Amino acid sequence: MVKRGTPRHLWSAVRWQVRGRLDEAAYRRAGRRFYEGGSWTHTTWLGENVFKNPLDLWVMQEIVVETRPQLVVETGTYRGGSAFYFATLLDLLGEGEVVSIDVRDVDSEYLYPAHPRVTYLGGRSSTDPGVLREVARRSEGRRTMVLLDSNHSRDHVVAELNAYAPFVSPGGYLIVEDSNIGVVRRDLLPGPMEALRAFLEQTRDFEVDRTREKHHITFNPSGYLRRIDAAPSRLPKEAVPAPVAGR
Ligand SMILES: C[S@@+](CC[C@H](N)C(=O)[O-])C[C@H]1O[C@@H](n2cnc3c(N)ncnc32)[C@H](O)[C@@H]1O
After folding, report:
1. What is the pTM of this model?
2. 170, 227 contact by CB (below 8 A)
3. CATH assignment at residue 204
């Protein structure tokens, strides 16, 4: 007897793919609604205003505990809440300091939370040569993690990526924030996602760690970059195996 119609296993493969796409669309929509709801703009950590998605904060906490940075560098201080957040985590772990950089003068508008582990470098851009010299000095020989959360235009983020990537320790993280701008604020494009694409095209030192997007709703899609342990940048690109399909 000749079988008619589409075989059952093909139907289930199609169903599985369609469901995956619908889930992705649902997460994107939920992410947009969460951003538009604005609760993240008045979220606090120990009373200090942090301008981040709490799911990302949780993931950052996991990264800090796993990688034990001795120096956390953040560009973009705003109210100082995120610098304070990292400082209190480092307190619990018993080691490390935070350097937070903002183009605004320190105390120009807000009183930043004071904490003995935090140094605020204010009044100069994150790409200012003097600021970079100071970060280079502090990161020398120390496990260093970097978060880029200042001006989110593509060109500035590319400049920051090139300037700050060398400070990140092997196995450590370089976090590019607000790469969801293409979903939530198209008027601000090109932004961090475009910067990430340009950066990842010209380096083999970092990989996107998708496991850090496990909660699905993140402001930093493709933005959790892990520095590969051995520095393979001096290998020709052809010598680096292609990524495994599906990862
Ligand atoms: C998104 S807010 C930072 C939020 C903060 N990291 C938090 O999570 O609470 C961005 C900050 O970047 C600062 N900024 C803008 N352009 C900058 C630049 N070129 N260099 C350093 N900081 C800059 C702004 O003044 C603003 O305070």
Report:
1. 0.89
2. yes
3. 3.40.50.150
